[in-house]
Structures are given as structure tokens and as C-alpha cells.
Amino acid sequence: MPKLDVLNLEGKSVKTLDLNEAVFGIEPNNQTIFEAVIMQRASTRQGTHSTKNRTEVRGGGKKPWRQKGTGRARQGSIRSPQWRGGGIVFGPKPRSYKYNLNRKVRRLAVRSALSQHALDSTIKVVENLTVANVKTQEFVTVMNALELNRKTLFVVSNEEDVMNAYLSMRNLSNTMLLTVQDLSTYDIVNADTLVFTEKAAVEAGEVLA
């Protein structure tokens, strides 16, 4: 069973915490991680791209020259695809890129991504994220104490009051804060380090198992 030190906001260890092996200790399934990431990225595509085919381009109603006798190739419209300003052949049209994976596959992908972070020792657990003031510089001090200098995902419980922490970190380009319920495979994979509050780590072990 994975065991981690629980740190305070000064970076000092205050206790240890056993993580749920069914969530943080499985053998990562890279295929499900790949499929879940592709699904999530595809679902964010707007799909509003559009081109006009020859029937939709304005103009070109008249045959540009007679069928025979000119020595040139026969043409029926100056809006044919081979003409400049003509229609587009098989161009993109508005469509939805969304698709779904089975719930079991999505859950396995999240557990696999968390377990990979555990294997890589890129998970930290803090007592809480309770800060007294809404000051970005003070939160930078907290991150330095926790040795967080790369892209970091903070995970908290819905029951915790972390508004001051959220307001303090939102101007930092390399930080993100999510609740356990909002965790997604892409967000986990995209982060270099995961920082769970103690309550969120316990909750993740219960909810995602």
C-alpha cells in the first residue's frame, strides 16, 4: 500500500498517510489513459469549421464558353473546384467530435494515471490548503516550501474551504485546482506534480476505488 508523508504548508512532515492501493497502487494501463485523453481533447473541439462546395459558392451560373470549337477544355462553371474562387472538394463541414468511453474504462484511466504518478513519486499530500490572506506572493512562498516549481495540480475535497488559496493561485500560470469529483485523466497526465490535501487523498481512495 503506497504510504506518503503528510506535509504542512511549510514543507515539514507531520504524519504519514496510507493511500488506497486500488486507486494509487495498480499497474497503469497506458491504453486506457491514451483513449481517455484523446476522448477529452476531442470533446473540447468546437467543430465549427466550414467550407463551401460548388453549389454554395456565389456566381458561376453561366457556362464560361461554348462546349466545342474553342480548343480549350470544356467547362460548365467558373465555380468548379479547379477554378480559383471555385468550390472546395470534400472540405470540412460543421460536426461534433464528441464520443464516449464506458464508465469503467474512464475510471480505470483515472486510477492508472494516479498510479503512474505514485510510481514516479510525483504525488504530495498536505494537511490542508488553508491560507489566511488572498496574496499570490504568499502562495508562491508555500509552493517554494513544498518544492513545486513545475506544472502543479492541486486536488481538494468539496467540503474544504480553499477559496483564499484558489484566489491566490489563479494568477499563476503553472497551477490548477480541482476537486476529487472533477478529476479527469487529461488533467492528471498534464500535471508534473499532484498535490492532494489529506482529506482529498482519503476521499479519492473511497470515490475512485
Main traits of this protein?
Ribosomal Protein L4, Chain: A, about 210 residues, six-stranded mixed beta sheet, single chain, about 15% strand, alpha/beta
Descriptive overview:
The chain is α/β, with parallel strands linked by helices and 209 residues long. 33% of the residues lie in helices and 14% in strands. The chain contains 7 helices and 6 strands; from the N terminus they run E-E-H-H-H-E-H-E-H-E-H-E-H. It has helices spanning 21-24, 30-43, 103-119, 136-145, 163-169, 185-190, 198-207, and strands at 3-7, 13-18, 123-126, 152-156, 175-179, 193-197. A 6-stranded mixed sheet has the order 2-1-3-6-4-5.
Terminal-residue CA separation: 14 Å
Instruction: Determine Rg (CA atoms, Å).
Output: 27 Å
The main sheet comes to: 6 strands, mixed
Order of helices and strands: EEHHHEHEHEHEH
List low-pLDDT spans. Answer: none
Helix content: 25-40%
Strand order of the largest sheet: 2-1-3-6-4-5
What is the CATH top level name of the largest domain?
A: Alpha Beta
> What count of domains describes the coordinates?
2
CATH topology of the largest domain: Ribosomal Protein L4, Chain: A
Q: How many beta strands in the DSSP annotation?
A: 6
In round numbers, the mean pLDDT is 94
Number of contiguous helices: 7
The CATH homology group name of the largest domain:
Ribosomal protein L4/L1
